Amino acid sequence: MPQSPFYRWSPPARVVALLSLMFGISSLQTPNSLGVASVVVVLCCVASQVSWRQFAHRLRHSRFFLIGLWVFLPLGGDGSPPLGWISTTGLQVACLLSWRFILCLALAVTLLETLTFSQWLAVCRWCYLPSLLTDTLALTYRYLFELEFLLSQMQQALFLRGFRLHWQRLGAWAQLIGAFLIRTEERAQHIYLAMRLRGYGLRGQMRPTFADAAPWSWGLTGIVLLGVGVLIGWDSGWLERQLR
Question: Which of 16, 54, 147, 240 has its Cβ near the most Cβ atoms within 10 Å?
Fold first, then answer.
């Protein structure tokens, strides 16, 4: 884990702060407010020491969404005289949505990359989510890795034995699929029993305390919440009307 004060921030406080910042950014309408939010997001990304390659990887998967914004929104309205058939209102909306989407994506990547799966489960328990829900989430997460490993093993075995997909071998393929389903069901049972032996699914589990977190965690979260409220008030003009 990188040596950064960001990682001493209590996981529940970090989740509350970054999620509230994401919801606040999604409601901003003016470039000035988005510029301030961009500075805050860049500071969070730098403090978390998350690789920019992770963000670029997530952004590459969202390229079709962004392309759709910049293609359909400018063409969906009435064209303005300087640009002909391109709508300036659509361009402004596409720019606004893309800006907010990129900022929220950066915060989401920061949040996901700085918390482990066990910390996410602890945060869920801290929020008093039902133990059945958190245990099912843990079981699914573990079972997906086991299923991927088992599938790769069977694919390698089929490749070494020279199996090829052909209509004359559909019976053999059906047997293989049946064996795969049986083995996955057995692995699921083993994982479930192992988790039960480790205490999952039992009532009366203690709420996590996060004793190793910094004492300033919730104070920083309160500052973030206050800043989000001020930024939303400034963006909507409410704060300016109150100060007059």
Answer: 16
Task: Give the Cα separation of 115 and 213 in Å (integer).
Answer: 13
CB 215 within 8 A of CB 13: no
The Cβ-side half-sphere exposure at 192, using a 13 Å CA radius, reads 8
Per-residue pLDDT tens over the stretch 76-123: 655 555 555 677 788 888 899 999 999 999 999 999 999 988 888 888
- If you ran DSSP here, which 8-state letter would residue 207 be given? P
Rounded to two decimals, the pTM is 0.76
What single-letter amino acid sits at 228? V
> DSSP letter string over 130-194?
-HHHHHHHHHHHHHHHHHHHHHHHHHHHHHHTT----GGGHHHHHHHHHHHHHHHHHHHHHHHHH
Nearest to 138 by CA among 183, 95, 199: 199
Give the DSSP per-residue string, 48-67.
HT--HHHHHHHHHHTHHHHH
* pLDDT per residue as tens digits for the range 19-68: 999 999 999 999 999 999 999 999 999 999 888 888 888 889 888 999 98
